[in-house]
Amino acid sequence: MGLIRLLFSDPVTFVLLVIPLLYSVIIHEVAHGWVADKMGDSTARWLGRLSLNPWRHLDPIGTLMLFLFGFGWAKPVPVNFGNLRNYRKGLIFVSAAGITANIILAFLALLVLSTAHFSLFSPFSRVLQYLAQINIILASFNLIPIPPLDGSKILMGFSSKKLQYTLQRLEPYGFFIIIGLLYLGVLDPLIDFFRWLILSVLSLIIG
After folding, report:
1. Average pLDDT of the chain?
2. Which residue, of 68, 115, 148, 176, is most buried by count of CB atoms within 10 Å of its CB?
3. Could you give the number of structural domains in the chain?
4. Options 29, 37, 41, 150, the catalytic residue
5. Which residues of 24-40 are buried (b: 16+ CB within 10 A; e: fewer)?
């Protein structure tokens, strides 16, 4: 259901959903920039992108998609991988930072849900449920190794120069490839696998 329709049919759920969704995407991007800054590239810091201010991150089309379809994106944090002290490690750690941030947010939400004593249907409980679900989906989606998703750059960090070059050439068309594969349902099993893997790990940790 689009968020605009939800706004009019259930305003409370709209607020409970849109705020965790918005900040989950923002924290994902800030994590990329923060790790890049620690590894030698200060581009994101100089452009003011290491901020939780939504206005610094909102993408017009991504925000529109969010309200129409319930799934959107923020402006990617700029990273100059050539500035990183170690190119391969930089590809892996900077690209994995956003996914890691989403998994940590999901872990914290599930941890509070499993230890706190409040009604399962209370507003706070619903926020935590949304927060966990949203961040697990974001992490699972970004693990797909198709450019420009983070999974492709993590793969590049372990790959030969030839495969890196191939993935880089695919990047301008990656968005259209992903949309097409999502429409055909080709990526659903892969997303489900990553979701199962993340949930399994979190369940082991939380107990």
Report:
1. 88
2. 148
3. 1
4. 29
5. bbbbbbbbbbbbbbebe
